Amino acid sequence: KPKDPQARSFEETAPTYNRPQVYLTSIEAKNELPAWDRMKLLKSARWLLNNSGLAQRIVRGISRYSVGSGLVPQARTSDREWNKRAEQLFEDRVATDAFAFDKSAAVNFYEAQRMIVEQMVTDGEMFAQLDKSEAGNAMARFITAEYVGNQSNDDAKSGFNDGIKVNSDNKPVVYRVLSNPTQQNADYTDVPAADMIHIRKLHRYGFLRGVSWLCSSVSRIQDLRTMMENEQLAANLNSKIGIVIESQDAGNIGLGSSLRKVTGGTTEEVTFDRLTAGTGSVQLKPGEKLSAHTFDRPNVNFSNWMEYMVREIAWSAGISPELIWNMSGVGGAVARHILQDAEVFFSDIRQVLEFQFCRRFWRYWIWNAIRTGELPYPGDDWWRSDWIAPQRLTVDTGRDGKLRLDLVRAGLLSPQR
């Protein structure tokens, strides 16, 4: 160690009292986010979703732009007739029917995709257990983040870390699903990892649980809400004052007729100024001046500061601030760049949804249909599928449409695609 605390090869390792201390619970990724901290972030994000328009725009906007009306499956076996039959059966059975898809009959396959992304942004993750109906048909049982966790402190001795038991390779093997997440020592069910889909965007390699995408902006959104409420309160107060008397007299000053003291429900006396109805003149003392009240709220710097706050909040969630806040004044070239950047972001989310949920449920459902005889066995490529994403964001619909037509005419793009 150097004798002088400031003499270091890397000055950033020197202690300082000018900023908060850099602290991690553990350098082991799976222990970096304790269950209590994860639940605190989850509660804060859900509260903001209930009470902040900006938080709602981030959560709902990301879901709407990335998923749209839903990713549509296309079977890709070597048997084209079987592909059409499987696609139609899936469409009729679970894609548009919540009763046959969701164990709680709340969402169908397409609606579930929007719900999953919203839960992933807010809570950081979503669980879907591969299950069956009483008739033996493949279904999904959705489980929100608070229902997966340790039942008691003794679970850690059994190898569970925040509701997930892993093997020596840090691979999940069992998920502990609680019957009541608010009750200590409540009943639970252990679900094998083979039957559980854990949908999340990996925060850091080694993390076992998902982290709310608002994790680094919860305080900022709350601060912004407080600032807006204070400005609104000041604006309401400003609007109630029409004219003022400017005077150097420190005594009681009123607008005319009779100053009176009124005692309310407490012992405190409040002075009221009763104005006489009708027209009249205000009698001013020497040195006094009557003037209109200046409406100076919100503060002239408030918009610029709010713009900076929104930018930090949006980038922390991963999305361009112009897309969720304000694109006015943005030129065509800049708008195209913003949409292109956003499309990359939404494509990443679609990949998470496709590879972690859609493909896995498709394989589970297709194999179950083959096993029950609803579909014949088409060959060893029965599991192959493609997924059609919603149309990408664009500000050049005409130009993009012409490009697609040219590609079709040149044989570089099929009419179906």
Describe this structure in words.
With 417 residues, this protein is an alpha+beta fold. The chain contains 10 helices and 13 strands. The strands form 5 sheets. Strands 4-5-6-7 form a 4-stranded antiparallel beta sheet, with no helix packed on it. A 3-stranded antiparallel beta sheet has the order 3-2-8. The radius of gyration is 31 Å and the shape is globular.
Annotate the secondary structure layout.
Layout: H1 35-51, H2 53-67, E1 72-75, H3 80-95, H4 98-101, H5 109-123, E2 125-132, E3 138-143, E4 160-161, E5 164-166, E6 172-178, E7 188-192, E8 196-200, H6 218-239, E9 243-246, E10 258-263, E11 269-274, E12 289-292, H7 302-317, H8 321-324, H9 332-372, E13 385-388, H10 397-409
Antiparallel strand pairs: 1-13, 2-3, 2-8, 4-5, 5-6, 6-7, 9-12, 10-11
Strand order of the largest sheet: 4-5-6-7
* Sheet having the most strands: 4 strands, antiparallel
Elements, N to C (H/E): HHEHHHEEEEEEEHEEEEHHHEH
Mean pLDDT: 85
- Overall strand count: 13
Task: Tell me, briefly, the overall form.
Answer: globular
Class by helix and strand content? alpha+beta
Keywords for this entry:
417 residues; alpha+beta; three-stranded antiparallel β-sheet; 39% helix
In short:
This protein is of the alpha+beta class. Helices cover 39% and strands 15% of the residues. It has 10 helices and 13 strands.
